[in-house]
Amino acid sequence: MKGVESDALPVAEPARRPLRRPDWLKVHLRTDGDFTELKTIMRKSNLHTVCEEARCPNIYECWFHRTATFMILGNVCTRACRFCAVTSGKPTELDWEEPRRVAEAVAQMGLRHVVITSVARDDLVDGGASVFAACVHEVRKARQECAVEVLIPDFMGSREALQAVMDARPDILNHNIETVRRLSDRVRSKAKYERTLELLRRARDMQPAIPTKSSIMLGVGETWEEILSTMDDLREAQVSILTIGQYLQPSRRHLAVERYYTPEQFAELKQEGLRRGFDHVESGPLVRSSYHAHEQASGVMTL
Asked: Could you tell me the residue range of the domain that residue 260 belongs to?
């Protein structure tokens, strides 16, 4: 076995002293004109971004390169995953003008690739699938040269909801598995490991030409063998793009970090993923699902 020890680390206790964050996880802040301009566009359009809501460490780099991930269906999630910084509670917002505003912002920003994600909306009959579909259509009308990636929740396993999204024909269908099978129920709220795999399989069955994508975060107690097994499960589901990143604890009430992986271990996992047949693997300490999304898409969509 390579890379890390095979035994899982013990579950963190709330009172345990946090692990010291390594130097390679330091983020260089930049608040130059590009960052300020995009922030202004978002606020004027009354739009949310997962870049801000989830406190993504890559926000400065991505916004500098004119890439952003829009978070639709409000900013209150019906689930309370133990790794996520997005506010959880009972949503009140459902804005049918949101797809038009997203499209206008995409055009104004001149994006080449947009990622559209959402909070989980288990309070809605279709989980918000119809709004996802409307966003894809509106962005295509406003800026045809922009590739559209959707990062969707599991819609509680609804085939009809997934079909509505796939019928809109996004360029990439993204749904994150997040962690290994053994830890899934502990880490995620309501989401199920097998349901995620089934959604990814169904997406390829519905639209075989549309690449699928998923993400694994490391550092919540998984073993090296479990990571590789998760890769195998995703490949069996015909996932094309894999992203792997380090989990960072958003606050003390969230899951503690059990282990920090080194850049060398992430590089080794990238090679493991490529050996398993993924078309593209983005693997690194600060990698998130939407990190370098435009580069991932261009590589896969030209195959």
From this structure: 29-301
Ramachandran angles phi, psi of 237, nearest 5°:
-85, 5
CA-based nearest residue to 193, from 204, 177, 208: 177
> Which residues are CB-neighbours of 173 under 8 A, at least 6 positions away?
149, 150, 152, 165, 166, 200, 203, 207, 210, 211, 212, 213
Sign of the four-CA dihedral 173, 103, 293, 75: negative
Q: pTM to 2 decimals? A: 0.83
Task: Work out the average pLDDT over 110-121.
Answer: 90
Per this entry, what is the length of the chain?
Answer: 303
| Residue 271, both tokens | 């090679």
List beta partners, residue 147. Answer: 113
Asked whether residue 195 is assigned to any structural domain, the reply reads: yes
Closest to 170 (Cα-Cα) out of 293, 46, 41: 293
The pLDDT of residue 109: 83
High-pLDDT (> 90) share of the chain, %: 59
Q: Domain with 79 in it: what CATH number? A: 3.20.20.70
